[in-house]
Amino acid sequence: EMQLVESGGGLVQPGGSLRLSCAASGFTFSTYWMSWVRQSPGKGLECVANIKKDGSEKYYVDSVKGRFTISRDNAKDSLFLQMNSLTAEDTAVYYCARGPDFGDRIDFLEYWGQGILVTVSS
Amino acid sequence: DIVLTQSPLSLPVTPGEPASISCRSSQSLLDTNGHNYLDWYLQKPGQSPQLLIKYVSYRASGVPDRFSGSGAGTDFTLKISRVEAEDVGVYYCMQARQIPPTFGQGTKVEIK
To answer: How are beta strands A18-25 and A3-7 bridged, if at all?
Structure first.
């Protein structure tokens, strides 16, 4: 059974850092694009970071550029999101999501984790 | 970035009746390869989003055939032929023409 399980969320002060992890199982992780998508309380969806299957290409939404870093460890079937200089606007549920196993873009997000809450507050 | 505008934002529906959601893009989602990169997702209450339709009209695995997608360029539509109680939730369109992908603001479907 395919699974994506996020961890590492919690409460952090403004200006602080947090590292999210996503453990993948049930599929060949190294052959898929992966993404982090967030959803602020009561708000819609925002795809904040994307990474190609081999980690050679990474893309970010403007609001997190220079602060967030997406990475992956294909040997450990894991996806990461390092978040620095956090502000209240980063408060959200963060989802790990699987893209396609082909192509040069995120054509779709086929499977999603259950999400992890990140709260930025003093 | 490409902006997607959904309408309506709220859609009360009667079980057994059809429903339709529109998604308009600020730029064409037609790529030079001839494909339109527009997907639809449903987020049921308390759940993660799930992929319903990819590439405008291709249903994801396990999605009932009462769901259909159409459109091209900048105008797209999701239709539910006969709404069932389990279809309630928030529907989002997402463009994959440019990275990063962007989502519409969502359409909340609820039973009347």
So the answer is: antiparallel
